[in-house]
Amino acid sequence: MAYNPAHTAVVILNWNGLRFLQEFLPSVVMHSGNCEVIVADNASTDGSVAFLQEHFPQVRLILLDQNYGFCEGYNKALQQVEAKYYVLLNSDVHVPQGWTEPILALMEADENIAVCQPKILSQQHPEFFEYAGAGGGMLDTLGYPFCRGRLFETLEEDKGQYDDVQEIFWATGACMFVRSNVFHGLGGLEPAFFAHMEEIDFCWRAKNVGYKVMYNGHSKVYHVGGGTLHKSNPRKTFLNFRNGFALLYKNLPGKELISTLILRVILDWIAAFRMVLAGQTKDAKAVLDAHADLLRNSSYWGKQRKKHYHKGNFPAQTGVYRGSVVWEYFVRQKRTVRNL
């Protein structure tokens, strides 16, 4: 029997994103079938709420009392949403007709699939993959995230090479389908992350307890990207380095933990040195601030680590590249996942 999309809630978390709501919300309302469309607002001050109330009365509005960030904003909003499936959708995403059906059909066919993402293309250059998610997320053995279709700053042209259905390691938070019972059962997104890499942490926790994370290239959406923080923003640098390290500490099995963290510290400091040479002194300082923050809050991260099951033999998990993507990209000049 076909899946009833009325059991799906498309939830957009908004914070001062009026321009994106004006441009992209119409496509979500028009092309999401019978899915419930919800905007959860993180105490915006740019007129977003008034715009929604006037122009989209059919869209349910959840008003949060302050800016809780991406992670806790979604956690608080989704406590108020009843549905079988949630779609966490960024406000700067254009969706075409029929974008939900292939993914919902896939998840209905396999109850072991907890999370799934579509193909993520660039809104500005739709012939290319977009940075945040591309053709599905992977990790290397040191925990560096990358995507099929995107290695660091290199984006592949979409030539149908990822028009497949594939188990991956992590799905992008820009457009993430997730079973509601799994979302709540795992405690939602890590609130201390605030934003960035929270979807990797969530997917890793889901995989550690036996669920699958999937990519379905038969569905596609178009993402602007960098809508809240530009990629060169020191705040984003801080969050990426802090959260990337915490991600490993929370989820790696014990026998792989210490050696991996030591190597990551060394590589992080090398990255900071490269930033200094490039004149990005504020970004370099953000890397050091990230390490200092981790030390200050070590007791919190220790408690978070104890909460979760750590599946052994991390490099053997589906979606993990058994090597160093940093070495392959920067030293061996490999530019696509298929060349690794």
UniProtKB/TrEMBL annotation:
The keyword Transferase belongs to this UniProt entry's keyword annotation: yes
Domain of life from the UniProt record: Bacteria
Domain Glycosyltransferase 2-like: 10-128
A Pfam family of this chain: Glycos_transf_2
Entry keyword set: Glycosyltransferase, Transferase
GO MF annotation list: glycosyltransferase activity
Family: Belongs to the glycosyltransferase 2 family.
Name of the protein this chain belongs to: Glycosyltransferase family 2 protein
Organism of this sequence: Pontibacter cellulosilyticus
